[in-house]
Structure formats: C-alpha cells, structure tokens
Specification:
39% of the residues lie in helices and 19% in strands.
C-alpha cells in the first residue's frame, strides 16, 4: 500500500548574541568546561533573570524573515521539569504567547510550508555520558535560542532538507545565527507519520531527536518512512515514540515510548513582567534588516553577474560578504567572481576552512585583480601572487619582492631584443626570407631573457620594428 507522508520540523537555533538570554554571562564555544557560567545560569538563590535586548532584536528579525505575525507584548513562561542539565528545575520559554506565529517558507517547487510558531527560550547544559558517570558542561546553559516549528506540510526528505536550508539561509543572512550544525548552534527534530491516501486522521507521530547534519536528516527520514511503511504493511501498529538516528547503522533507534503526555506544569514566569514592544522599536528592527539572499542575488544580476556566479556566491554568506568587500576596491566584477569561485573557494574546501578563517584580505585580492587588468602582472603571475596574499601578505609588496612587475620601458625591452637577435642571427635571415615564424621565435627568446616580465604587446611591436629596420 502507498502512504501519504506527513513531516513536521522543529529547529532550535542559537541566537548570535554576546551574552546569554537571561544573564550577563558570555557566549562561548569550545572553551574549557564550566568557565562561561554565572550565578544566574547556576540558579543561585536570590538571583533574577534580565532579558537580553539584542536577543529580542534577533528574534524579531527571524520573525520578519520567516513572514511571521509578531506579538508585540513579550511574555515568558516556565517549563517545569527536573533534569541534571537544568539547574533551576525549569526552563524560561514562551509556551503560551510566542513572539512569532503563522509564518511561511516557499520551496523551489512553489510549495508553501507554514511556520506554526517561533518562540524564544534558553538552552540547557551539555551532558557527556560515560560508562559509570555523566559529566555536565554548563557553558551552554542559558544560551539564547529561538525554536521554529513548522506545520506538517512537508512530504519527503528532499523537501525537509530544502526547508531547513532556506530557514538557515534566512537566519544567516539576517545575522540572527551562524546556524552551524557541527557546533550545535542549530539542532533539528523531525516528526514523521504515515497514513493511507484519502484518510483525514493523522497517523501516530514518531519524533527523531537532535539531528546534526543535513545528510543525517535526509537519511533518517528515508529510513523512518521505509520502517513505518513496512510495519503498516505487516499489520503492525505504529507507536508514538522518540527515536534517534544512528550514523553507524544508518537506522533510527528507539529512545522512549510516549505512552503518556508529560505535564510540564507551565505557568507565567513571575520574575519577568510583560514587556510591550513599541511600534517604533519593531519598525526600527525592520528598517535595519540586513540584506536577504534574494535581494543580494537580484543586486548581483543588476551589476552584470550571470546567474551561475551569483548562485554560487550567494550560497555562502561569508563568501558573499567577502566578495562585496572585494568589489569596494575594484570594478572588475567578472574577474573578481572568477577568483572567488575558482581560487578562494578551492582553498577553503581543500583545507576545510570557513571564509572567516582566511588571512586573505578583500582589498589585497582586489589590488591583485587590478594589477592584472592594468598589466602590472600577467594572469599567470597572478597565480603566484595569490599563493602569497592568501597567507595575509600585501599584494604590492609580494609583486615587488618576487620581481613580477611587467616591464614596459622601451629601452629595457630593446636591450632584451638586441640580445635575442645577437644570439639568433638565423632568425633575421628567416624574417628577410618572409618566414613570419621568426617573429614568434624571437618573442619567445625575449620572454625567456626577461623571465616573462616584458609587456607582450609592446615587445612584439618593437621586435617587428627592429627586424624591419634590418631589411
């Protein structure tokens, strides 16, 4: 039997603030465990939360980027449960009044995936489970998050991955989050159910928790669809479960059965009074929204870029930001795009780096490009220059240190030509006999003598003049 596939996505995205959502502790990644923690994060008696204003600004940006309706009255709730990664015994969240709701994301096929809600909450600590013990790092505790919950409008793994990619792109371009799944700043849960075509009632929902890469999301969905379909075909009942994806076996593994609804005893957070966001505040956020990928793509086409180059560069915001910085120092748009796509990306991919890790400065790449255009160096020499400026060196100094400046001084070029003619008298005789290849041969000899530094056009003209004077 064929089944209709129903998929919903929950995304937990860390906001790009300097401090935590309800405390002044710094946001860090990769630091020594339990060194970025304050008394509020650890729930010391008498401590009170304070709302991070920038966290609210970033949440509003996310709402606007995902076309959500905004609730201007900011309210928080307590989600009560006891667990070792939650020092307070509760999480501050927005259960009843999310800051955003009724949003949407449009996929490439024109399908609209609705966003049910977007709410602000704080992250929990990170646990490391050993054989006989569990270690806890509270550095992450209290980090600001937005949870984005889609409606069950997704029908397959491809659509799920595209939805996540589009949301990620939006949040990245709006500078809401760095959305790096490998660092845990974006985590995804997938809810999957199957039902026979034509049925209105949804099937039992299975949740796959904490998927940490797009590839794993795709593989987990494909496996889970096949698993549920096989069970239904065999007359078995799908239970509401929480499962995890095992990379080694490429299967989903049962974590727990949702045999009863957990009562989190939600109630209003008493230590944070409702905050009315004024129209001026919200409009100021809207007026200062960073440029979205779609707007940047349109701008690139307007300045003469082709679709392919624009698509490749837009696909990586850091690359696009770097490219824009290069264009501040050169008008050679096509050449700049070629260098970004063929050379800069090659270095990044080869060394598994982020664009922001590069020592290369945008201005120096632009200076190198301009040096090729004004014929200070040749395209071949530019490769040598690039290999140096990628290490953080200055273009003009590299050109000077390597002695790569193109020689245009006619007296210097004539000296090379005279030496080439003196060393190859037969070429003069060949030219007199009407053999034009002599011109090309002497050109090659001059290039060899000058180590390729002479201007080809000027040199070719002067060789011809010299030979004609000898007729």
């Amino acid at each position: 039997m064929n089944y209709e596939i129903i998929i919903g996505i929950e995304m937990h995205v860390e906001l790009k603030t300097k401090t935590k959502m309800f405390s002044p502790s710094p946001i860090t990644y990769g630091e020594k465990p339990n060194t970025s923690v304050g008394v509020v994060d650890m729930a010391f008696p008498g401590t009170l939360p304070t709302v991070n204003k920038q966290g609210i600004v970033l949440a509003l940006r996310a709402c606007m980027g995902l076309n959500c309706e905004i609730d201007s009255l900011l309210r928080f709730d307590r989600k009560n449960y006891y667990y070792s990664d939650l020092p307070k015994g509760f999480q501050i969240t927005q259960q009843f009044f999310p800051i955003g709701k009724n949003g949407s994301v449009v996929l490439e096929n024109g399908k609209k995936v609705r966003v049910n809600r977007l709410h602000i909450e704080e992250d929990t600590a990170k646990q490391f489970h050993g054989t006989n013990e569990t270690l806890i790092d509270y550095n992450r505790s209290g980090n600001p998050l937005v949870e984005i919950v889609s409606e069950p409008d997704i029908s397959n793994a491809k659509e799920a991955v595209e939805f996540i990619e589009k949301v990620s792109e939006t949040l990245k371009y709006l500078d809401v989050s760095n959305v790096r799944m490998e660092e845990g700043s974006m985590r995804c849960d997938v809810n999957i159910s199957l039902r026979p075509f034509g049925y209105e009632k949804l099937g039992s929902k299975v949740e796959i928790k904490n998927l940490n890469s797009l590839n794993n999301i795709s593989k987990a969905i494909e496996y889970e669809i096949a698993r549920q379909a096989q069970m239904l075909n065999n007359g078995k009942v799908i239970l509401e479960e929480t499962r995890r994806f095992d990379e080694a076996s490429m299967t989903t593994i049962l974590m727990r059965i949702k045999d009863e609804t957990v009562d989190y005893k939600y109630f209003v957070e008493p230590n944070i009074i409702p905050i009315q966001l004024t129209d001026n505040f919200i409009n100021d956020v809207k007026d200062n929204l960073p440029e979205l990928a779609s707007a940047r793509h349109k701008r690139y086409l307007e300045i003469g870029m082709n679709d392919y180059d624009a698509d490749v560069i837009i696909n990586n915001k850091d690359l696009s930001d770097f490219f824009d910085a290069v264009l501040m120092h050169t008008k050679e748009i096509k050449m700049a795009a070629n260098w970004m796509i063929s050379e800069v990306l090659a270095v990044v991919n080869k060394d598994n780096l982020e664009i922001t890790d590069l020592q290369l400065k945008p201005k120096e790449l632009a200076v190198m490009i301009n040096s090729v255009v004004d014929k200070t160096i040749s395209s071949k020499q530019a490769k040598r220059v690039f290999n140096e400026i990628i290490l953080g060196k200055e273009t003009k100094k590299v050109i000077s240190d390597l002695g790569l400046e193109v020689i245009r001084d006619q007296a210097q070029i004539l000296a090379f030509i005279e030496t080439a003619i003196e060393n190859n008298p037969q070429s003069v005789e060949d030219f007199k006999a009407g053999r034009d290849r002599a011109l090309g041969f002497l050109m090659g000899q001059v290039m060899k003598l000058s180590q390729g530094k002479v201007d080809p056009q000027i040199t070719n003209k002067l060789i011809k003049q010299q030979l004609e004077n000898m007729l």
